[in-house]
Amino acid sequence: MADAPTLKINPDLVARIRAHGAETYPHECCGALLGRDPTGDVATTSVAGVKMASREILALFPLVNRRDDSPRNRFSVTSDDVRAAEKAAELQGLSVVGWYHSHPDHPAEPSDFDREHAWPWYSYVIVSVANGVAEYMTSWRLSDDRSGFACEDVVIGDAAAK
Amino acid sequence: MAVKVIIPTPLRLYAGKRDSVECGAGTVGEALRHLTTTYGDLRRHLFTEDGKLRSFVNVYLNDEDIRYSGKEETPTKDGDTISIVPSIAGGLSFGAA
Description:
Chain A contains 3 helices and 8 strands. Chain A is α/β, with parallel strands linked by helices and 162 residues long. Classes of the chains: A alpha/beta (162), B alpha+beta (97). Chains A and B meet through β4, α2, β5 and α3 of A and β6 of B.
């Protein structure tokens, strides 16, 4: 059994993700997580599921949900947005290490649709928003074989603000 | 002719931890097939089981999105660079896809 990976994030960034989810309610919000992974460019997952090192989120890059047909239950970020997020990260000496989005009136758990549109290595943070109020926040990583997500521990602390 | 394929960070583990791979290819599709033949574990993250590029996987030849040129049949020339960029999507399981 793999040890759970860890995502470090400071309280201010958590508050901003939650506020973004509340602000766009009843639609889904989305954005990029910029930070550092101690393994650099090398993913630490494996088919055997070895331990994944912790990573640290140091900035956010909020994005516009491009889904105007069903924004209540879908979010979409174009490849141009992804490239813009990567550029923003690079300018800050960081990397895009994941993505966040909200689940309006729905638990903070990844859906099959999330799984079908994900890659391993990235952290996928989900915040549930009930009646306009942000509630639980979780983070997930896709397995190597694309069969499901593993929940990663979210460590909220000021140490991540360095 | 040699083209360079940039491997996105999340997929480098499946490509021998390399950030790019050079290969001989006459089209973008040939380069991608070469890549996923050499690194079989990459295949499932780029292609569906029936061999189609996943809907959220975008491929650029130099700075051009191949969706607007010849898709996977887009011809390459020596020194071209191919980038693989995801579009990020997700959401709840109910309602429209």
